[in-house]
Amino acid sequence: MSEMGERLVLDLETQRDFGEVEGRKFELLGVSVAGVYSYEQDRYEAYREAELGTLGSRLQACGLLIGFNIRRFDLPVLQPYLPFSVTTLPVLDIMEEVVNNLGHRMSLDSLAQATLGRGKSGSGLDALRWFREGKFALITKYCLDDVKLTKELYEYGKE
C-alpha cells in the first residue's frame, strides 16, 4: 500500500433497487447513506446524499479503498456523484478475493458467518424501506454495521 493516503473501508445503501429503475442501471439507484471507516482516524463516518462531494475528495486522496463487491456495485452507484472516474481508485474488493480463492461468489452475510461467526444486522431491503420512510438513523446504523463487518473481514483475511 502506498503511504500517500488513508485506508478507507466503504459501504453504501441505495435509494432504489433494480426493480425501480430501468435496465439495471447502477447510476439510477441513488445513494441514501455511504459509510466509511478510516484506519488513520480510527473513526466511522456516514455521508448523506448531499455530502457525497466531501466523501469524493476523501476517496480521491485515499491510499487504499476496501470494500465488499464495491467494484461491481458501490462504486458504479457512487459514480454520478463524483467528478472523477471511480476506476482510478486503488481498490481492494474482498468479493474478488473470495472469488479468486474459492472460485465462486459469497454474500457478505455468509462470509461473515463462516469467518467471524456472526452475520449482518439487517438486509438491504430494510434499508430501502427505511429510506422511503425517511428513517436515516436506522439506515446509517445498518450501513456502518456493514462497514464494521467488512473491516473485520479485511483484517481476518490479512491474518
User: How many individual β-strands?
Assistant: 5
Helical residues, percent: 40-55%
Number of helices: 6
Uncertain regions spanning at least 5 consecutive residues: none
**Structural shape:** globular
Write out the strand line-up for the largest beta sheet, numbering strands in chain order: 3-2-1-4-5
What value does the average pLDDT take? 93
Topology pattern, helix = H, strand = E = EEEHEHEHHHH
Give me the Rg, rounded: 15 Å
Structure notes:
The chain is built from six helices and five strands, in the order βββαβαβαααα. It is α/β, with parallel strands linked by helices and 159 residues long. It has a five-stranded mixed sheet with strand order 3-2-1-4-5, with helices on both faces. It is globular and about 40 Å long. The mean pLDDT is 93.
